[in-house]
Amino acid sequence: MEFWLMMMVTIICVIFGFMKWLLLSVNVWYYENVKLSGDKKLRLSLPPGDLGWPFIGTMWSFLRAFKSNNPDSFISSFVSRFGLTGIYKAFMFGSPCVIITTPEACRKVLNDDEAFKPGWPTSTMELIGKKSFIGISYEEHKWLRKLTAAPVNGHEALSMYIQYIEERVISALDKWSSMGEIEFLTHLRKLTFRIIMYIFLSTESEQVMDALEKEYTILNYGVRAMAVNLPGFAYHKALKARKKLVAIFQSIVDDRRARREKRGPEDKKDMMDILLEVQDENGRKLNDEEIIDVLVMYLNAGHESSGHITMWVTYFLQKHPEFFKKAKAEQDAIVKNRPSDQKGLTLKEIRNMDYLSKVIDETLRLITFSFVVFREAKEDVAIHGYTIPKGWKVLVWFRSIHLNPEIYKDPMEFNPSRWDELTPKVGTFLPFGGGGRLCPGNDLAKLEISIFLHYFLLDYELERKNPSCPVMYLPHCRPKDNCLGRVKRVSSTTSAA
């Protein structure tokens, strides 16, 4: 009886093992043998890696790692199985892809527009917009980027926003300090959203802002999720949020078109006016879909990254009193050395915040807010002795570069002093991406963060309720309690004085 029982167990295990092998071979057979037309040489030059299960690929492994307390275990599993090659094949977000983790390869992918084009997953483009920066051609992107970057970057534009940002920051900090316990991150995101709304739409409507911000929160949870369009799944909820965002923006566009006829030439113009007026060399103007997709993208990126990074810089400074003290001393010196008749910050003062700039850069490195960007090979491309086949996605994994101990000593340690003598080599510091598709709002983001920290360091401290609160990594890195705590006023000094 025991013999037959063992035989049955053995047979079941063999069948299970065979079925597992068969399923794990499906993606390899289809995408390497069929899709690559049986070209043996090309197949043999593919990077090492794992295409995973049919349809799902390696997404389960990715989601499991990023929902744990060790997101880097995803890439580490490739390194442990296939060696430190810096380039691995995988199957993610519905496509066969190659993950790039070295500065040299990242630099090539981000800068070679002849060989690579945007390769964001179809699911992501459905959420962010096919006519936004992530979906349009190189020439369209170049034209639209030049058009939209001017109002958010450059000396004149940034100088124009300083006073408005200052007023919002001073008011917010004063209000938060009287509210008791708050979700610090949630309120920071509302603050940065108010700022970007004003810059793009010249509005501070609480009703519109709350409606948009709520839908953006749902949208972002779907961007990194599996593209399962069924009730209950994050992607399904995100698609519904996208529809609501489009409806809100459509009403804003319609209202602006109607009001523009009554406006005088001297009235202030914002990003919405620019998008409505612009036309290319052939006289073509942007249609409503294009305008809305640009707004969806810009308003999302314009408040999410600024809010999260500001929270993390504040968190790290509070956690390291020696760095807090040094950063505060720099801000005290700025106030002390300015002319008596000057009210508020100047762009020159902000650009002279040398130590604070290092603190921000160290936070950008350690957190890596956007840990990956997507490209697609337009042709067969050779990198590091391997071939990236035409049509395969390329995932530029910034997080692996920023946390590489060969590039940054003790990479998991928050240490602004590492930047004292460090000039990062090309491809080793990519907090805002790189190449022709570098984030157009990076200067505005750093401006917002610097202004907030100036006033916070002068007069406030953050007392967290749960200092050991676990961190979640999707859709963005943050404490699970949204940095619950109290903003405490510790000084009556103000740099506006």
From TrEMBL:
The chain crosses the membrane at residues 7-31. GO terms for cellular component: endoplasmic reticulum; membrane. The keyword Transmembrane applies. It comes from the Eukaryota. SUPFAM superfamilies: Cytochrome P450. Keywords: Heme, Iron, Membrane, Metal-binding, Monooxygenase, Oxidoreductase, Transmembrane, Transmembrane helix. It is found in: Membrane. It is a single-pass membrane protein. GO terms for molecular function: ent-kaurenoic acid monooxygenase activity; heme binding; iron ion binding. The keyword Heme applies. Pathway: Plant hormone biosynthesis; gibberellin biosynthesis; Hormone biosynthesis. Gene3D superfamilies: Cytochrome P450 (1.10.630.10). Belongs to the cytochrome P450 family. Catalyzes three successive oxidations of ent-kaurenoic acid giving gibberellin 12 (GA12), a key step in gibberellins (GAs) biosynthesis. GAs, which are involved many processes, including stem elongation, play a central role in plant development. This is Ent-kaurenoic acid oxidase. It comes from Solanum commersonii.
